[in-house]
Amino acid sequence: MLVLNGVDAVRALVGQEVAVSGWHEVTQADINTFADVTGDHQFIHVDPERAKQTPFGGTIAHGYYTLSLMPMFIDQMVEFTGFSFGLNYGINKLRFPAPLPVGANVRLRAFMTAVEDIPGGIQMLRLDTFETDAADKPVCVAETVTRLYV
Q1: Where does the pLDDT of residue 136 fall: very low under 50, low under 70, confident under 90, or very high at 90 and above?
Q2: How far is it, in rounded angstroms, from Cα 46 to Cα 49?
Q3: Per-residue DSSP letters for 23-62?
Q4: 83: DSSP letter
Q5: Model pTM greater than 0.70?
Q6: DSSP letters of 120-147?
Q7: How far is the C-alpha of 141 from the C-alpha of 67, rounded, in Å?
Q8: Which of 32, 81, 104, 109 has the smallest number of CB atoms closer than 10 Å to its CB?
Q9: Are 31 and 61 in contact (CB under 8 A)?
């Protein structure tokens, strides 16, 4: 795990890859639970038999399920010290270039694009790319905005 202690340590990563997470298996049980929580029960996510008839050949993860794995991955990859707290501020751009099949593995690759001063702290812009072992294209690419307060 990468430990970033304070503003200068975060700022030093601009233009660099921050870290790559470990792999996480996408299970049908997790997809079904996500569908229950969000109310999105579209068959391509929750009906393996019917989903076999689609070009995907089986069920796929919700795009927002993939995105929701980000906090888990970030916690595995980076520890921020020297700050009182941090929060997600938003996403400037979000795309789902390829499907994430149930049963595949997914991981996060984070790249620091910018660090800006804000009142009371800094704002980080990262390019977060979710990769799968089931495809050559990423399954999610997001330009995320995070604020860290000292």
Answers
A1: very high
A2: 9
A3: PEE--HHHHHHHHHHHT---HHHH-HHHHTTSTTSS-B--
A4: -
A5: yes
A6: TEEEEEEEEEEEETT-SS-SEEEEEEEE
A7: 9
A8: 81
A9: yes
